[in-house]
Here is the input.
Amino acid sequence: MTNPLIEKWDNEFEIPPFHKIKDVHFEEAFALAIEEARKNYANIYLNKNPPNFQNTIEQIEKAEELLDKVCRVFFNLTGTDSNIERQNIQLKIAPQLAQFSSEVLMNSRLWLRVKEIFNNRDDLDLSDEQHRIVYLYQQMFVRAGAELSQSKKRRYKTIMSELAILGTKFSQNLLADENSWQMELTIKDLDGLPNFLKDALAIASQAKSNHGYILTLNRALVVPFLQFSPNRHLRQKAYQAWASRGNNNNSNNNLEVITKILRLREERAKLLGYKSFSDFKLENQMAKSPENVESLLMSVWKPAVLKAKKDNHQLQNLLVEDGINDTLQPWDWRYYAEKRRANDYDINEVEIKSHFQLHKLIEAIFYCAKRLFNLDFEEISLKLHHEKAKCWKVTQNGEYLALFLGDYFTRDTKRSGAWCSSFKSQSKFNGNKRPIVLNVCNFDPPKEGNPCLLSFDEASTLFHEFGHALHVILSNVTYPSVSGTSVARDFVELPSQLFEHWLEVPEILEKFAINYETQKPISKKLIKKLLDSKNIDQGFSTVEYLASAIVDLNFHNASSPKDPLKLQKEILKGIDMPLAIEMRHSATQFAHIFAGDGYSSGYYSYMWSEVMDADAFKAFEETNNPFDRNVAESLLNCILSKGGSVAPEEAYINFRGKLPDVNALLQQRNLVDIN
Here is the structure.
């Protein structure tokens, strides 16, 4: 039997042959790819010639090409279309991949070659990108335990293998827990709900092969239900189910999993000589230290809490006006915040949503990319990873640049949230490779014959993920290890959060925010209401985010807790968390920090990047033209095309002349002069 995963993909775009790939192919493909990579590394460290960039670093760059190809297909499928067989394979392969990575990065002969190149780098005729890569490899090997004793190396390998298994279990438990809950709704329960939500609840029921209406734990259903349902009992039931994901009395409970993860991360950091996991994790980020992260978070926390408490008072009054003799609760906030917005600005979510059609907003992101970077998008028909996904060929001045894939609708087999990943990254070394980038969202599918309508927040998510995609599409580096989004975690959110600003450009709203019933563009009056009201609930959104970031930092900046949920409660009490607001992600559902290593002690990154994106968009505002080509070209040349080939601080200073301070963020969130 031939295995399509390990064959050469000779199609026009070198896209995986999804129609040929079966689950049975993966274990064999992983085994063969790991063995091939192992042989490639052996050829490097057994080379008797003195180490240089070409015979060592460049060979490392291509040693795992086949393994990378198999990994990208498999993990994109497990994220977007999981099943039991794939989950079982993932539990098997995750520790194998971790063990192989440790085997490579702890190989003393390979490390000695990299170390010698690093020590002699100033005497070698290296380009700036090559200098950067040598530095990054030296850092990677040391931080993976290359200089540990043999006994510590053995323990480190075990830790990494166990963490890989635990991260996989966390993700699978969370998906299973989300899919296990549903709430059937009667016709009476639908009172007060807008038609778009009723339609979505009916579609959710049909997806479960039921009639009637069902509320699931899909965020695109839960949030509008909490916004619009006047039934406080149902809101409470829905909210508590949403907030308790991963912490129920069943086999999907993640408390033991996260307790072990935190303990192993602490041990990992201390093996490497760091005081805490946060010290280890932040050393090579822009933030550099836990103290710098805490300083940023708390400088925003204080005005955000003041704003939230003022808002709490107003919402409490609305609760009392409804004849409810109780204090405002977390399941009340969104409902009364929506009421307040309607009262204060004569605007409501239904009116807004009727103008935000998914297909028109996709046109909008492409239009912005054309105006800024002269990109063209042509929809083409290819067999993709899922029948609901779409594909566009991206060109610039007629030259093929990338494939862009969009997978926008929720399904039970897809993990929650939104993200950007790729099936292939850009590089010019070892052939001119063009990227295949994937945006994944979880929007509710529309009723047949109707367009998919988005909230303003969901529209922002669409723009956000496309900002990540642009970072991949516009990458122009030589080596794959620094391509696209291969940058510091607290820098990677800059392009995505920056691109969100174009959603608020009046020209974009007038051109693409078209009412799906009347086909008329959004009025200038409604645009003003929308933009004027966008920060009305900023206290809530900032506090729920910051609480999660602060808990994440504290989890990793001290001894690992015996009971993470108890510590979480103590942390929130210590920062005076408002009682009517809870963390955006409680620990047992905090996939950013526990489903993998990516955002562990790094959830602050969104805010760190926001400090930059608030300042970066000012570069366009200073020209009075959100599509100024000179500024766009500078953004492209200094940041978007560079990937990780330039240190993030240097890249930003090249673009703006200096690093920004927190004031731009506070102004953007309307958190200045709060008293």
Remarks:
- The first helix runs from residue 24 to 45.
- The chain has four domains: 24-147, 181-243, 279-343+536-668, 358-518.
- DSSP finds 27 helices and seven strands in the chain.
